[in-house]
């Protein structure tokens, strides 16, 4: 009996120590290993398929738009960290990685009419994901167009009419700029399973809208829409989320 208690004590301490080990990796900034090993195996999580739903099974349904305010403490996990870390990354950076780096998520432009029906996908016209025009359009969805004076030899460059030459560039938004997420959801009652259920249709990050001339906040701006069923695999398997 005493031998068994000793074994259980050792296992308990070992499990406690293992549970405290972080997802280790080498920091790109300091080249320091944050942990006792380099994590090489990252498990792939299976995405649970949706239950097949027939129109005849839906007795009642309603579409709502839910707002996730990132100022609320319960939503801080989606907001922080503001800078990617070895073991954590914000939801906005996951979106950017899936859309720009990996190319597995399609970004939908809301347009001037703030359309949320996924009618304006940002895709390369010729099917080439390396097309410069497509890359510029995609990056502009994650930022805003700003201007600056063209400068050469510490002097502002003027055109033939003596006016300053202005250069446009894309200033990217960061995780710190995101103030809320808008979820497009469908709630329904499935009589086949006798239960009330919900499915997320889309998700959209929002930032503060600023007047470019006065620099005053004039409201909120939704950057783009993502089709949530397409995002599920990326969100589920992104190791650092």
Task: Walk me through what this model shows.
This protein is of the alpha+beta class and 241 residues long. The chain has a domain at 48-141 and 174-237. Helices cover 22% and strands 29% of the residues. The protein is built from 5 helices and 10 strands. Strands 1, 2, 7, 8, 9 and 10 form a 6-stranded antiparallel sheet that branches. A two-stranded antiparallel ribbon has the order 3-6. The two termini are 44 Å apart.
What's the topology here?
Blueprint: H1 2-20, E1 58-69, H2 76-79, H3 91-101, E2 107-108, H4 132-141, E3 143-149, E4 151-152, E5 155-156, E6 166-172, E7 178-190, E8 195-210, E9 217-222, E10 225-227, H5 228-237
In a few lines, what is going on in this structure?
With 241 residues, this protein is an alpha+beta fold. The chain contains five helices and ten strands, in the order H-E-H-H-E-H-E-E-E-E-E-E-E-E-H.
List the main descriptive attributes of the protein structure presented here:
241 residues; alpha+beta; two-stranded antiparallel sheet; 10 strands; 29% strand; globular
Distance between the termini: 44 Å
> Which spans of ≥5 residues are poorly predicted at pLDDT below 50?
1-24
- Please, what is the average pLDDT? 80
How many helices in DSSP terms?
5
Task: Output the structural class.
Answer: alpha+beta
Shape: globular
